[in-house]
Design a protein that fits this description.
mainly alpha, Four Helix Bundle (Hemerythrin (Met), subunit A), about 80% helix, binds heme C
Length: about 150
C-alpha cells in the first residue's frame, strides 16, 4: 500500500516536472512520519498496558510488566529518530514546527523520556512494586509535557 502510493506520487511529481531531488525529499518525509507515528503508537500500547496494571484495572504480572517496560525503552529512540528531518513537518502529521525551530528543547524532552523509560525498565527488572509504580509515574509525566509544547491536539 505504502509503496504503491509512493510510486504513484513519484509518477505524479515527474509529471509535474519537479526535480528528482524534491521527489526523494518528499518520500523521505513521508517515511519519517510513518516511522515515528508507528513507534509512538507502539509506545502508547505498551504504556497503557502497564498503566492498567498500575491502576489495578488488570491483574499485575511481573514478567509482562518487565517485557512492556523493556520494549518501551527500546521504542523511544526509534520515535526520536523519526523527527530527524525538518522536511517531515509537512504532511499527515501533528508535529508542531517548534520541533525544528527549537531542536535543543525538543531533544532535551526526548533525553528525559529516554532516561525515565530506561530507569523504568531497570527498576521493573528488580521487581519492587512500590519503586516500579514510582518510576512509572515519573515516565507518565513525559507524554503530556512534550505533547503540550510540540504536538497539535
Ligand atoms: C519528546 C516528545 C514526546 C514525548 C515524550 C511523547 N510524545 Fe507522543 N507524540 C509526540 C509528537 C511530536 C507526536 C506527533 C507525531 C506526528 O504526528 O508526526 C506524538 C504523537 C503521539 C501519538 C499519535 C501517533 C500517531 O499514530 O499519529 C501517540 C499515540 C502518542 N504520541 C503517545 C505518547 C505517549 C503514550 C507518550 C508517553 C508514554 C508519549 N507519546 C510521549 C511527541 C512526544
Amino acid at each position: 500500500m505504502f509503496w504503491s502510493k509512493t510510486l504513484k506520487l513519484a509518477g505524479l511529481t515527474s509529471l509535474m516536472m519537479f526535480s528528482t531531488a524534491q521527489a526523494a525529499t518528499f518520500d523521505k518525509a513521508e517515511t519519517d512520519i510513518k516511522y515515528r507515528q508507528s513507534a509512538l503508537t507502539m509506545i502508547a500500547i505498551n504504556f497503557s498496558d502497564m498503566a492498567d496494571m498500575v491502576k489495578g484495572k488488570k491483574q499485575w504480572d511481573d514478567s509482562q510488566f518487565q517485557l512492556r517496560a523493556m520494549q518501551l525503552s527500546h521504542l523511544v529512540p526509534m520515535a526520536h529518530a523519526g523527527f530527524a528531518s525538518a522536511d517531515s513537518q509537512e504532511g499527515n502529521t501533528k508535529a508542531k514546527s517548534e520541533i525544528w525551530k527549537d531542536t535543543a528543547g525538543f531533544d532535551k524532552k526526548f533525553a528525559k523520556f529516554t532516561a525515565d523509560t530506561k530507569n523504568l525498565a531497570f527498576v521493573s527488572a528488580r521487581g519492587e512494586r512500590g519503586d516500579i509504580k514510582k518510576a512509572f509515574g515519573q515516565t507518565a509525566k513525559n507524554c503530556k509535557s512534550c505533547h503540550s509544547d510540540y504536538k497539535f491536539k
